[in-house]
């Protein structure tokens, strides 16, 4: 373990500038080829396309961070459990890669100090979490697929999403709310990714095991798409004007009824409480107040005409 950790801290910089001759049988190449189609599908989900266009609704972004927190908590718990497993130990880079604590800081920024008592794991995220725990307990080599899918994506497209989110939601330039995307212990993302893939390729795996890892990576992309679809569905359940008007969310007091996920479910069942939330939110918005005043004036005029 000590040699692995010292390599994690020092070898990444030494790796910069080296050029590996890759073979189609290398795990990194097999994974890239085997997940190409599903990767493109994930990038073309409505939620991701809207994100890249800068059409980010802050409440959905926050719920996405909650989903990531539960996902990384499960993955990093299983990584810790299996950090000495021969098929995962070479990929153990906690200081460089682990995201759980960064996500915790993001959630504190968005929801306040009591965030742990007011967030919950959504159904799509729970399915993802359950699979990660099952893999960690029963077939740890498949953790390679989950780590590859998440961490390599974070170091690639995740950096683009960070800039889009910061600009679209006018988040602080100092990085609060976006620590998930910040890897303080990685000085060159390109170099580190090369180093990580090199470690993957050095794993002594037979062809059948590589196929299993690819299949699990495809499955991991599928779980991510289900989370995206779930967020997109919640977004359709919460009208734009309500969210822009400041629909209450998790935070002060920890009231679940203020959670956008809970409100979406209530709306789907036709709950009167949701209708009240919508009305109150609209009335808090300046445009809503103007429209309400106009409606009152119209009704008063109509009543005066009717009584003449």
Summarize this structure as a short list of keywords or feature phrases.
metal ion binding, mainly alpha, Heme Oxygenase, Chain A, disordered C terminus, single chain
Describe this structure in words.
The protein is built from 16 helices and no strands. The chain is mostly helical and 308 residues long. The protein has a single domain, classed as Heme oxygenase-like (Heme Oxygenase, Chain A, Up-down Bundle). The longest helix is centred in the C-terminal third of the chain and has 31 residues, at 207-237. The termini are far apart. Keywords: Heme, Iron, Membrane, Metal-binding, Oxidoreductase, Repeat, Transmembrane, Transmembrane helix. It comes from Gadus morhua (Atlantic cod). This is heme oxygenase (biliverdin-producing). InterPro entries: Haem_Oase (IPR002051), Haem_Oase-like (IPR016053), Haem_Oase-like_multi-hlx (IPR016084), Haem_oxygenase_CS (IPR018207).
């Amino acid at each position: 373990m000590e040699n692995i950790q010292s390599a994690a801290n020092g070898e990444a910089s030494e790796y910069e500038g080296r050029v590996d001759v890759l073979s189609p049988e290398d795990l990194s190449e097999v994974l890239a080829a085997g997940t190409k189609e599903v990767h493109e599908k994930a990038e073309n989900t409505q939620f991701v396309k809207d994100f890249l266009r800068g059409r980010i609704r802050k409440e959905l972004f926050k719920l996405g961070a909650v989903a990531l927190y539960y996902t990384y908590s499960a993955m990093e718990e299983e990584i810790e459990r299996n950090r000495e497993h021969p098929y995962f130990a070479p990929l153990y880079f906690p200081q460089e890669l682990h995201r759980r604590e960064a996500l915790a800081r993001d959630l504190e920024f968005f929801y306040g100090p009591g965030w742990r008592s007011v967030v919950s794991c959504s159904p799509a995220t729970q399915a993802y979490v359950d699979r990660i725990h099952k893999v960690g307990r029963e077939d740890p080599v498949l953790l390679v697929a989950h780590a590859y899918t998440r961490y390599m994506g974070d170091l690639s497209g995740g950096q683009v999403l960070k800039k889009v989110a910061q600009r679209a939601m006018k988040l602080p330039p100092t990085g609060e709310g976006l620590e998930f995307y910040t890897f303080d212990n990685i000085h060159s993302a390109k170099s580190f990714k090369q180093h990580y893939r090199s470690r993957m390729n050095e794993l002594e795996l037979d062809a059948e095991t590589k196929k299993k890892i690819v299949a699990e990576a495809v499955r991991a992309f599928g779980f991510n798409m289900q989370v995206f679809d779930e967020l997109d569905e919640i977004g359709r359940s919460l009208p734009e004007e309500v969210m822009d008007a400041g629909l209450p969310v998790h935070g002060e007091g920890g009231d679940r009824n203020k959670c956008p996920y809970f409100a979406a479910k209530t709306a789907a069942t036709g709950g009167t409480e949701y209708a009240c939330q919508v009305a109150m939110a609209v009335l808090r918005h300046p445009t809503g107040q103007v429209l309400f005043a106009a409606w009152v004036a119209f009704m008063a005029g109509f009543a005066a005409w009717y009584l003449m």
